[in-house]
Amino acid sequence: MEEKRSQTHSSNPNPKSNTRMKQGRNKKKHEFEYCTVCKLNHDQGPSHKYVRRHTKSLSTFLSRFQSKLSDVLFFLKNPTPLRLEHASRTRLWCVFCDADIDERDSSFACGNAINHLASAEHLKNLKHFLWKYGGGMDCVDKFRILEADFTKWEKKCKSLKSEAVSGGPMPGPSNDIHNKLEYGIIDTFENNSSSSFSNGVMPLLYHTNEYQVSHSGLPQVANVGRFPQDVTTSSSINSKGLTVSSQRSLTSNGRKGSLDDHFNSESMSEVYQQGRMTKGQSSSQGFQNLAQISSKDSKESSGNVHTGALPPWFAADEEIQLSIPLQPVSGTLVSMSNKLGKSKKLNPKRVGAAWAERRKREMEMEQRGEIVKSDYDANWLPNFGGVWQSGCRKETRKEFELEKDTVVKVESQSEMPVKIQPYVSKRMH
Amino acid sequence: MSYLLTTLTTKQEVDSIIRSTIDKVLVLRFGRASDSVCLLLDDVLAKSARDVSKFATVALVDIDSDDVQVYVKYFDITLIPSTIFFFNAHHMKMDSGTADHSKWVGAFRAKQDFVDVVEAIFRGAMKGKLIVSCPLPPERIPKYQLYYKDV
Predict the structure, then answer these.
(1) In chain B, which residues have their Cβ closer than 8 Å to the Cβ of A256?
(2) B62 touching A, CB under 8 A?
(3) Between A296, A380, A393, which is nearest B69 by CB?
(4) How far apart are CA A296 and CA A423, in angstroms?
(5) Which ipTM value was assigned to this complex?
(6) Quick one: which of B77, B146, B134 has its CA closest to B109?
(7) Is the pTM of this model over 0.90?
(8) Worst-scoring range by mean pLDDT, A29-38, A87-96, B19-28?
(9) Which Pfam families does the protein's record reference (chain A) (predicted)?
(10) Nearest residue on chain A to B13, alpha-carbon basis
(11) Nearest CA in chain A to B12
């Protein structure tokens, strides 16, 4: 690809190589060349980059690549050791260098990509690309990694490596998702105070990950074998725990299949029966054991870790935080602009059609960097129809806002006059 | 499972995803990653998110985050996992024979169930309907009980 590009370049200034007929008809005709941004061959020469269609597709092209880079930037901020099984999966296609960067031999997540983005070769190619296809030299820093950031990252990596050597295998603080989940589950089951149950339930949960099942199958089989005995012998287990376990085997019907090798069907049926007996009437098939949550009051948040105030480190790099949820934005925009023709075919009476059209225009303007005035602010709430909603849906929102206001008022009123005093009996006086 | 999908923790993120999903169904799962039923649901969502990606976007909302409490209250979420559907920033209801039409409570039994539900919602929304009836047979719909406090 690179060769092709340079070839076409060298032939650009001298259009003499064109056929004479063409030359005679139009002197400005250039040789055909391929524009990787528009994905088409054109003969407009260097002026092609000013064509409206090209600038449009260039902006989507760059934003798409930037959304891919957001992952890399995340790992630049907080380097994490890369697991071997993930290494082959992550790869990055650098559109500027036309090179595929895979992570086979790097020990940190996106290590090779970071190395590449910081390299001088990449900068050269990037500058060439921007010169050739337009886009402004001011966005060079968006698509490469600065020297300072790179050295910081290298330092962090070194310290992580030394930690790994001293602190035993796999220090990975946040990387170990399986263990984290496991702990969470054990926590919830500890309430039932029956450890044998959490053992019995485990294998089904493991099923979301084939790797775990195939490697840690044997010890769990032993547990499973013991499981029905526990049910039958220990009558002191509260009925709540029992419903939990039997529900788990019911709801995960679909996955049970491959576990059947371990379970013998007799013990399964025993479990089912036990569950039915204690559960009584609540054993309808679709029933799931749903956790109930208590609503917290967001008004209390003023400045503590426990009350959930905005941590100072979020305030500093808010843009990076924002780039993660904004990813689908660019995705939808790209698809929108790619098939503009399709939107005309959409039913004009579909839900929120007017809103969609308006919002699409707004987003296009936002992407071009213009400031759009809209009715959006921090208190914006989407349209929602409540359970008891009747009439217009706006009423749900109005009611909610009204309730919120009254709650705030009541709180502020009630907090003021209450003073805690020791109880003094009135009969004494 | 929650690490496979976008997880939203602030109201601003939820706002932006609702406002930027155009002509697609937005599936918002309210729950917590450590809950066992949430794990089942997240598994189904993560596996089918790609299949429905042409007409739906799936995102998770962490209800433990203090920043989204306003949404937890606004959407009246008392049981987790609760799944809420949007189309062009309009809330889509589904009549599934349960107490609450405004959200799907509980996990889906299978990938296909989820795909069917999202498709029904998308087709309804494209016809201009704000409420659709559930395409699933009643035995595949999780049952639950709502207790009303101030009614």
Answers:
(1) none
(2) no
(3) A296
(4) 30
(5) 0.81
(6) B134
(7) no
(8) A87-96
(9) CCDC84
(10) A325
(11) A378
